[in-house]
Amino acid sequence: MASEQSLEPTNQVLMGGRKRTAYNPAEREFSRILQQRLNELLEGKRNTLPLLRHYPNQPNRLGVMITPASVPRDQLRLPVVEALIWEVMTFVSPDGAGGPVSQALAPDGSLVELQLFATKFPHIIIERTDCYIGESEDPCETTWGLRRMQNQRAQTQLNRVLDVANLAIELLGVIRYR
What is the Cα–Cα distance from 126 to 49, expressed in whole angstroms? Predict the structure, then answer.
């Protein structure tokens, strides 16, 4: 006798109902471009994806990826755009700890700290950069972006060449022993 089990969704975001997202036309276009650029990064067609620049001392200011002139930036609502970008970060992040913090002096004398974070994609990392002016302990800006650590297209082409070479060696071995 088969037991009846409840098939409750374990991931409400994936399987649950969702009301329509309230984007205005500019945010709709921004979301489409963001999705397209994320896809390009994952497919190996893009090596970097700058995402967000946060200015702690300027709460009404936010830096985001460069968009085409067709996107009216003055119509983008900061909370909506920031939420979209954090959704990308949440999507790629395995919630792991970051690597060591490295420091370097910028040409203008400011201190720049860089910390890398692993993602669930072995060939992509999150880069967090904090900039400090003078002796301040708090950053004047923090940026987040994604970077490809290997060129997937070149790796794939190299693997294909190696596969063909191995196949040729095997074929020669079979022909030789016949």
Answer: 10
Model pTM score: 0.76
- In sign, the C-alpha dihedral spanning 134, 137, 142, 146 is positive
- 11: which 2 tokens? 């991931």
Which residues on adjacent β-strands are paired with residue 104? 112
Residue from 99, 108, 163 nearest 132 by CA: 108
**pLDDT tens readout for residues 98-126:** 899 999 999 999 999 999 999 999 899 99
62 and 54 in contact (C-beta within 8 Å)?
A: yes
Domain coordinates in residue numbering, the chain: 20-149
| 3-state secondary structure (DSSP) of residue 176 | helix
33, 68 Cβ separation under 8 angstroms: yes
Instruction: Output the 3-class SS for 106-172.
Output: CCCCCEEEEEEEECCCCCEEEEEEEEECCCCCCCCEEEEEEEECCCHHHHHHHHHHHHHHHHHHHHH
